[in-house]
Specification:
globular; mainly alpha
Amino acid sequence: MPSSPLRLPRLVLLAYIATLATGIGVIFALLAEIQDRYGFPTWSLGLLAGIPFAMTLFGNLWLVPLADRGWEVRLIAVGCGLLLASLLWMVFATALWQWVAARALMGLAEGASVGPARRIMMSWDQDRHGRALSQVMVAIIGGILLGPPLGGALNEINHTMPFLAPAGAAMLVFFLLPMVKPGEYPPSPARLSRRGLTAIPGFVSGLLLAASNWLYIGVIDAIWARYMTDLGAGPILVGLGFLIIALPTVVLTPVGGKLADRTNPVQLAWVAAMVGLPLLLAYGLVAAIPTLLLVGALHSACWAFVTLPGQAAVAKVAPPGQSAEAQGLVEAFGLTVAAAGAFAAAPIYDAAGPTVLFIITTVALAITPLVVFIRRDMWRTAF
């Protein structure tokens, strides 16, 4: 259990992460409706889904390293402010460029603040990185889970409410952030370059596995609302469907964190990744909403044992003084993959349908466990 002085700061930090994720999640249930309301073309779904990933990538590469120099709380405050601006802009946005710009601000908010939050959490749990990272992941996924059903339900009241509700929460959390104080890491040797980080045994394998499922995230972000709508679902069912397929990840992520602290995290993630491949393929082979949700829930259960162990592997081998930068590299690689998936998914779905889309996604994702297997001599001795 966390010591008493850390309980409230930990809750504030996790509340911010959950609020950010909820703001991101409300869009999932509403993309198809936003498209129909303003007459946006289908290809714009890829743009609306992909732009946040690109901006989050920028934040992870160029802003997150500042967290290793003592800027953790300031970066989180900046992220909170950007989140608030993004949500308020969506209340008034009507043109496609306005929605793209607001989504870009939200992506930059995530890129500037999630890495610093992970560093702070690990500084409070320096001997249990898997546990610390699992708490952040639960907050992220929990917020994203809450977002779609919340967005669908609030949209029934008024189309601005899905954005005003998380904006109010973001404003409250912003005033509580001064309570968050990072822990102290022991002195570190000279900083490594990014190439030097990736040369550490086990680093690349952990990074690849942690980032691999971001391809799936990009694809789902772009087409989930459209896919569910085409199968006959309305906004509320779209949100509830996302809740159903992601809930196993929330439940099992703490288990994945504990196992990552006690076993070889790369081996754990590799096995789970292999189990998940046929389930990913099955997304494109269903013809009814109940079957789609069952496949999604089973795939989600596997995901809990892939991404988090991969992050824990990177945390274990990276120098403590570069923990934020190391996690930022994981996010940056994942976001590159996610952006590619988001930009490509909508046009492929529109032109060839879900079967072809998920065949391509599965084949692309299978490259990761293959590369990790080839590099097995590098990571077997690292943990």
